[in-house]
Amino acid sequence: xxLEKSKRVFGYTRVSTGMQANxxxxxxxxEQKIKDYCKSKNLELISIHREEGVSxxxxxxxxxxxxxILSKLDAKLGEGLVCTKIDRLSRSTKDFLIxxxxxxxxxxxxxxxxxxxxxxxxMGQFTMNLLSIISQLERSMTSDRVKEVFAYKKSKNELxxxxxxxxxxKQNENPDIKILEDNEEEQETIRIVKELRNTKFFILDKKGNxxxxxxxxxxxxxxxxxxNRLNKDGKANxxxxxxxxxxxxxxxxxxxx
Length: 257
Hints:
9 helices
């Protein structure tokens, strides 16, 4: 009779944004696989932590649920971690190898369901390293494809993300393709904003000397409101951040101190 005490383990499931719709590897599916695996391997499942909408490229200890598991394992509240696949734990080869090395030093058992890997054997370690590298390669290739799509859309003047101030969607035969064209009224507002920003005036300091100044973002907001110029929300109520975006072609930048 096998009297070996069953190991106490935590289950970890993770999906990135859109993962459930893309490949069917939902949190519920992963959870059921972990429960079935633990039952078949005589593992005592303490709890399953669900990480939703979090990238596998993110630092493991920066993910709330995984960080919680790692802290509990450090406190000896469990002896192992179960995941359905290597890329659920991490899509970064570097982070994955660091975690596995930590587990080995702390005598924490890592269980991978698909494929089933013996993390303590030489072949198992080689397989994990190889799968982790492949996972990171897939992530990099996906990122490159997204950049290529964005670059192509930009070259065709297609809408990417939210509609920028100064543009409108051009009417065309294919409603799925959103081509941008200038919104003349908003383009005039942009011209006024840039003109106001370059407007300089002089004030007298405490010693009576002239000091050159230029319009502040708040001054520009007030002037646009006076002119009844409408922002993207169709209101004449402007904020400095809106002006800052216009001055930097829609890019969000840090405010200068």
